[in-house]
């Protein structure tokens, strides 16, 4: 039920963190995988070769800066379309609304929300033609709840949840599903990068910020893992989840139950 041989997956923002974890689990399940970032470094290409060798599947790296609509669209075109689209690329910035830099607001909305619209728009015709497709958007617990100082991120993630529901309705009954996974805190470079800002905003040391701010709302007091997010994506791609569409799946240690 979890065999994805013969399926091509595009995972945006997948040279680190959750995206890389998702790419690994899809490759492990036998899918052909396209990994992406905006960097196009030797390390990015080495990552693709490494995944291909470890899992015995075809893995390609395609550069695209997802803050740009035309590059987001070109990513799926250059991949040759896809059966599985995982919109994962995302960035964060922490500041009070009245001090939030306008360019950061625009960049976060472009990468975290608009890129998912662009890639989905290009991927959908091929999925419809095949009568099978999966779009999985990596939203966040912050797609369902809010916290102070993260206005752009939270607005974008709530937007991703709404986009997922809309695509689900437009594709219902056509073999295509679209859902949003809402992780709580997963210890990745994105989260690491937030720690200094949070320390500054709250006037706390690193360990206190992790325990009292970041994991305060995660009742398990444990970070989720990239493997667990990847496994949730693989499950959504399996026949078990054929009727799961237009919904959010929280992987958040109980955060949104509070
Ligand atoms: P990360 O910083 O490790 O990864 C972000 C990825 O996005 C990288 O691969 C990076 O190359 C890519 N990226 C950034 N800007 C890009 C651009 N302009 N064009 C193309 N790619 C770009 O972060 P992560 O924690 O793995 O986050 C991945 C996703 O998961 C994000 O959407 C994030 O909001 C979401 N998320 C993370 C957590 C968490 O706790 N880590 C929790 C909930 C949701």
**Helix and strand composition category:** alpha/beta
Q: What is the helical fraction, as a range of percent?
A: 40-55%
Provide the succession of SSEs: EHEHEHEHEHEHHHE
Strand content: 5-15%
Notes on the structure:
The structure is a single chain. With 258 residues, this protein is of the alpha/beta class. It has 2 domains: 8-186 and 224-251, Rossmann fold (3-Layer(aba) Sandwich), CATH 3.40.50; 187-222. The protein contains 8 helices and 7 strands, in the order βαβαβαβαβαβαααβ. It has helices at residues 17-28, 42-55, 69-79, 102-130, 151-171, 189-202, 206-214, 226-237; strands at residues 8-11, 32-37, 59-63, 84-87, 133-138, 176-183, 248-251. The chain has a 7-stranded parallel sheet, sandwiched between helices. Helix 1 crosses helix 8, helix 3 packs parallel to helix 4 and helix 6 crosses helix 7 (206-214). The longest helix is centred in the middle third of the chain and has 29 residues, at 102-130. The radius of gyration is 18 Å and the shape is globular. The mean pLDDT is 97.
């Amino acid at each position: 039920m979890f065999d994805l041989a013969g399926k091509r997956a595009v995972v945006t923002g997948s040279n680190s963190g959750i995206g890389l974890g998702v790419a690994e689990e899809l490759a492990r399940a036998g899918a052909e995988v396209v990994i992406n970032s905006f960097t196009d470094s030797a390390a990015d290409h080495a990552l693709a070769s490494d995944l291909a060798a470890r899992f015995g599947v075809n893995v390609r790296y395609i550069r695209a800066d997802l803050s740009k609509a035309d590059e987001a669209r070109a990513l799926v075109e250059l991949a040759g379309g896809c059966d599985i689209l995982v919109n994962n690329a995302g960035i964060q910035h922490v500041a009070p609304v009245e001090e939030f830099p306008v360019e950061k607001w625009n960049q976060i909305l472009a990468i975290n929300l608009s890129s998912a619209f662009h890639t989905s728009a290009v991927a959908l015709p091929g999925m419809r033609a095949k009568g099978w497709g999966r779009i999985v958007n990596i939203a966040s617990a912050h797609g369902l709840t809010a916290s102070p100082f993260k206005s752009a991120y939270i607005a974008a993630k709530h937007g991703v949840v709404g986009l997922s529901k809309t695509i689900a309705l437009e594709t219902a009954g056509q073999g295509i599903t679209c859902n949003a996974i809402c992780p709580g805190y997963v210890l990745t470079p994105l989260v690491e990068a937030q720690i200094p800002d949070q320390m500054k905003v709250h006037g706390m040391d690193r360990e206190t910020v992790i325990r009292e701010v970041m994991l305060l709302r995660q009742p398990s007091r444990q970070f989720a893992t990239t493997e667990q997010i990847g496994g949730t994506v693989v499950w959504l791609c399996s026949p078990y989840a054929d009727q799961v569409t237009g919904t959010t799946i929280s992987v958040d240690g109980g955060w949104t139950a509070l």
